[in-house]
User: Fold Oxidoreductase from Amycolatopsis keratiniphila subsp. keratiniphila.
Amino acid sequence: MTLDGKVALVTGGSRGIGAATAIRLAEDGADVALTYQNNAELAAGVVDKIKALGRRALAIQADSADAAAVVSAVDTAVAEFGRLDVLVNNGGVGFVGPLDQTSLEDIDRVLAVNVRGVYVATQAAARHLGDGGRVISIGSCVSDRVPGPGMSLYAVSKTALLGMTKGLARELGPRGITVNIVHPGPTDTDMNPADGPYAADQRSLTAFDRYGSPSEVAATVSFLARPESKYVTGSTVSVDGGHAA
Ligand code: NDP
Assistant:
């Protein structure tokens, strides 16, 4: 167990990559708090799986677009588990739509969840993280390669995390905290099902002609969370099956 005694908070941990990550960090030894937006039942299922591993777990309803809720979620996790070592900024929304049909509301919503929510969560977490702390954000392969039209707003939101990661790596480095970003490629989840209408095109852009699984992304998050990754910061790690190659 490489994360024994550590506490992690995973945003958007009720499904998909976040759920796989929460469970993987628990398998590695961490106690895990997770947030969700709507799916209380699914979040409770993830909590049950973590508890079955002998770890403590907690699900917190918090819309990432609501800054007060995000700060409260971080503080609740710390109050419950007594510390915070790892923040995984995973919760996010997808968006596909052409430029001329993208509304101001669309822009505000996507940026509020995918960018502002990540910044606020990191700001709140940084008050509690100590030497050895970890911030790991889930970006996207669209930061390296936008495979087609209609993805500019989502790409804006995910590319913003690159600057955030590099800037915060500099800012938090002196405290022994690493800040990194993971870029998943097409990954089989509710957001991007492997049998969805755009799946064949996405699959064909990978070197393996297949989708990734949430657990493959979680494995890389797990490495970045571990003490042995302590000289990795400000970095992007792609888990994209060669999508950017
Ligand atoms: P899913 O749609 O399968 O799951 C999304 C998770 O985020 C759920 O737990 C959901 O909670 C939560 N969530 C969504 N909106 C909010 C919100 N406003 N506040 C709090 N939680 C929220 O997505 P994925 O697992 O596919 O995606 C996870 C991350 O990976 C995202 O940041 C996504 O952009 C990124 N990504 C995904 C790729 C893919 O191919 N799947 C590729 C590249 C990046 P609830 O269940 O309550 O709705």
Notes: DSSP finds seven helices and seven strands in the chain.
